[in-house]
Amino acid sequence: MKIKLQYAFFAFAALTFTAQAQNMQVKAAISKNTQVDFLKSFAAADETYAIESQSKAQEFALAKGLPLSGFDKDGNYFAVYEIDKKGNLIYYSTKNAGSRKTARVDNIKTELGLDLNGEDMTVGVWDGGVGLSTHVELDGRIIFKDKSTAVNRHATHVIGTVASAGTNNAASKGMAPKATIWSNDWNKDTSEMAAQAAEGLLVSNHSYGVDTTNENFPIPVDYFGSYDFTAYRFDMIAFNAPFYQPVVAAGNDRQSFLRLNPSKKGNDLLLGSSLAKNSIIVAAVFDVPNYTSSNQVAMSPFSSFGPTDDFRIKPDISAKGVQVFSTNNNVDNKSYETLNGTSMAAPAVSGVLILWQQYAIQKNENPYRSATLRALMVQTADETGADPGPDHKFGWGLINAKRGIEVISESKSDLALINELTLTQGATYEKDITVTKSGTNLTATLAWTDSPRNINDQFAEYLDDPTPALDNDLDLRIYKDGTEYFPWKLNKDFNLPFALKGDNDVDNIEKVEIPNAEPGIYKLVVSHKDQLSRDKQDFSLVVSSTQGTLSIEDNVKLENELKIWPNPANDRITIEGSVEQLKGATVVLYDIAGKAILQVNNADTFSSNWTIPLNNLSSGVYFLKFKNAGAQMTKKILVNK
Length: 641
Description:
Elements: H1 2-32, H2 36-63, E1 69-71, E2 77-83, E3 89-94, H3 99-102, H4 106-110, E4 122-127, E5 142-144, H5 153-163, E6 180-185, H6 189-198, E7 203-206, E8 208-210, H7 229-240, E9 245-249, H8 257-260, E10 280-285, E11 317-320, E12 324-327, E13 336-339, H9 342-364, H10 370-380, H11 401-410, E14 417-424, E15 429-435, E16 440-447, E17 474-480, E18 483-485, E19 488-490, E20 499-501, E21 509-517, E22 520-528, E23 536-545, E24 550-553, H12 556-561, E25 563-565, E26 572-576, H13 579-582, E27 586-590, E28 596-601, E29 609-613, E30 620-627, E31 632-639
Parallel strand pairs: 4-6, 4-7, 5-6, 7-9, 9-10, 10-11
Antiparallel strand pairs: 1-2, 2-3, 3-8, 12-13, 14-23, 15-22, 15-24, 16-21, 16-23, 17-18, 17-22, 19-20, 25-26, 26-29, 27-28, 27-30, 30-31
């Protein structure tokens, strides 16, 4: 027994050391690619601005006999935040109004057999206060990062949706039940976000926003949909911390649209941080126990609709936000409650993202850039709404945690692609994608972290301005046999903001979908318009199919150096190249249905010509996959008998 105990201690120590080493490696990778000094400087300057602005706002409220904080008739907590440049007193308020099943988190275990629970991962939560750290479901995993001590009911519920252990009450189990939470109140939020992003924070949740219920200081109509100073600050932080992903609740104002923004007929209700280009904005839907089609996903009656004034697709994604059961801050440390709101939907998305990062670290030893998370989220989202494509209500669809994990796994072979690349001024990126079987849906998503819209005066805002907020405008296209496939975009009409396909000049996410793609070789191209700021733009690209029937390979080098002839062929083909290229190479020939019908290895290691007999093949279209020790390519072959 003593030997076994010693061994168990050694094993635990080894696992602990491995986890610590991995954390150090991940933090080093993040720090290397993050503008740490800028973020620290930004945090210090923004803290000074926040303190001064809030102090003026509090003095103004007291002079007018207005409350500094309180609860509205729906139970939402509100508090004075700032006075904006137009002299409006701005309050912030929380956004109250099966999450694991709706987000397909449970399926990661039941269908994929993976135990992903957020071990060694951290999610930042900013809210109206901090979470109850002594709650039985959260005990020991909440760190009060900004030293706030005001425990908040809303914050505790949000944190539970991310990270409740579910051991005392299984129904409360969060997305990442072993994750650590950095809990902060919303005072000086952007300053603290910058500082914590510099420390390596990957995901943060913001289930609050501008309070629209204060009738003494109604929100001006032209604020809705406008890129303001808050959106600017969120984008500035994300741009300088390329691994950091903020997640923001869309808001719960749709039932009040006649009071807030009556001319837009329920649209154009987003404010502040929910208008940032690089944040993920989350809409709230009803529970979806087992998704099979878009008509199962019902929009909540309160979730705020977009789009932005420049017709970007916002919100970005949907998750359960109705009747969400989670932790409560009662002093007995084991209470729970059910709440509604986009506040409850956002932490479900935050939890899914941190699970994807956990799996990415396991597979790649490093986390993904935030643009990759956004591309993966959009790529794998399930269809919602009455019409195909994205919209200004649900965003790109219903988040699908399981499918995201599958695509990460498929990307380790040639069945899917997840790439993080850089486009330089005047350059294009091209990739050949071979669809090997009919009936598959080919999908590609491009995303990039765009720099903030140029604001010369830090208090300047773009009110009701339809000019694109994009700094760098990248473009995604797919080509085959003379056909050009375009990405989705919104029709630029607030009365009819439906999805259509064409040149997208406003979104920093572009998605091309080709339903029922015919077998063959498709060329994917990423390019850009005009001058790139800083002469370059990092971007992320995700490509996959519904049936795993892709062959995604680096073709350019070999296509320029190998000759395959004749084509069309009859009874044989010849591959001509250098001796080194052909030495030990393998050829696999697939038929039009994607079935491998011929595989040969090159036994002649001294010739620059390799002849492959085709005697047993009938006439038709085939795909030849050539692979040597250093590269591979796929080429369509036509056989005529």
